[in-house]
Protein: Flagellar motor switch protein FliN
Organism: Ideonella oryzae
Amino acid sequence: MNANDKLEMDPMLGDGPDLIDVDMPEVAQAAASPAKPRRDLSQMMRRIPITLTLEVGSARVSLQDLAELSEASVVELDALAGEPLVIKANGTPVGRAEVVVSGDNYGLKVVEFSGLDLDRLQG
């Protein structure tokens, strides 16, 4: 291709910005087609299982201290005795609770809950 070939192609290419035809009937038809019905997100969210856990507290220890732990070891946690424990939903804190006995199992008694408003997700 020489310089003359390029000059002959320039009129075919146009100026550039108007290469896209926005008046295409396919685009107008797609924009005018009815939207699919929205799913009720709050109802779907209500059926998703999550894991609730109670976090007693935590401690920062060195690997050396961890390696030296035995059955009789005691590790002091950062939580005060008697204070409510952190409720976590899939690892995210959502409130505080106390441990209770429910039949043969432990349970949790909610003391404080930040609330999950699933109805707000309807958007």
Observations:
- The radius of gyration is 32 Å.
- The CA atoms of residues 42 and 121 lie 6 Å apart.
- The longest helix spans residues 3-13.
